[in-house]
Amino acid sequence: MSxxxxxxxAFVFFLLFxxxxxxxxxxxIMAGDVxxxxxxxxxxxxxxxxxxxxxxxxxxSKAKIVHIDLDGIISSMSTEGFFxxxxxDMHAIKRQLEQAVADENAKAVVLRINSPGGEVTASDILYDxxxxxxxxxxxxxxxxxxxxxxxxxxxxxxxxxxASETTLTGSIGxxxxxxxxxxxxxKVGLGTQTFTSGAFKDSLSGARPMxxxxxxxxxxxxxxxxxxxxGIVSAARQQPADLLKATVADGRVVTGREALNAKLVDQIGxxxxxxxxxxxxxxxxxxxxxxxxxxxxxxxxLGLATARSASxxxxxxxxxxxxxxxxxxxxxxxYYLPSIFAR
Length: 343
Prior knowledge:
By secondary structure, this protein is an alpha/beta fold. It contains 10 helices and 11 strands. The protein has helices at residues 2-31, 90-102, 120-134, 150-155, 182-188, 212-237, 241-246, 256-261, 271-281, 298-310, and strands at 50-55, 64-71, 106-115, 118-119, 139-148, 160-163, 168-170, 253-255, 267-268, 288-293, 335-336. The longest helix is centred in the N-terminal third of the chain and has 30 residues, at 2-31. The protein is flat, with a radius of gyration of 25 Å.
């Protein structure tokens, strides 16, 4: 009996130790950032990404090429989940680019893109981040299986673009979709009553037929976004916009070889060729190749768990019947995506 209580007591002391360590850690971080009145004087410093070596440096060289990954649908929506800070998202990629630019030993960046595209604004933000990084250090984009639409948009900010023979890229265009179900409503005796402050407030509603002026209005939005996309491609690839519009900039997806022939990319090769090009542009032939990663410590996990339990929300369980092969896109949102991904 005493042994049982002894184990229980030891476990309680262990939990108290962990709780004390977490609280002391948080206090140490905050102590220098809070004034006598209890107000924050500055934001806590952001954690740096750790590095893992992909290719060793030659000799005693301290130079390095930074490898960054951009995978999946490009979105501005916040990533949620227990390890949300460790997941790659738009903000994490921007921070990785900033860290690479600030690191004097990082001579160039290889941004590997494997994405069908995504939201218009998120793609534009990442394009701008890549372009700013490329203004200070060479940035080589390596296109993996797919770098289409928004993925290609982001690539236009780079110094050079390398694609594989089998890469699918291009898809220079904009898409927006909505579902029309008003005829189904009429068959089953359903309907909606909508009160709006203006004639266009409920545009894209599937509960009623779309008016001609609404179609023209939405098409104008798409055309504006497309003209910006086209202008960026034209400037980045030094190709006349009219020529692009009449050929590969009509929304089609092309292979890496076709993209090279259309001057959408600079070189055919694999990721190792992108590393070699980055070393050449960065004038560091002996540089190592490193990849950033964000490790979540035990204290981070416990602190996050504590914060989440303090603001406990009811658990929502969803069952998806359509499978998870394709992303769930938001209706009425402008996307740089091939049409198959919008269905």
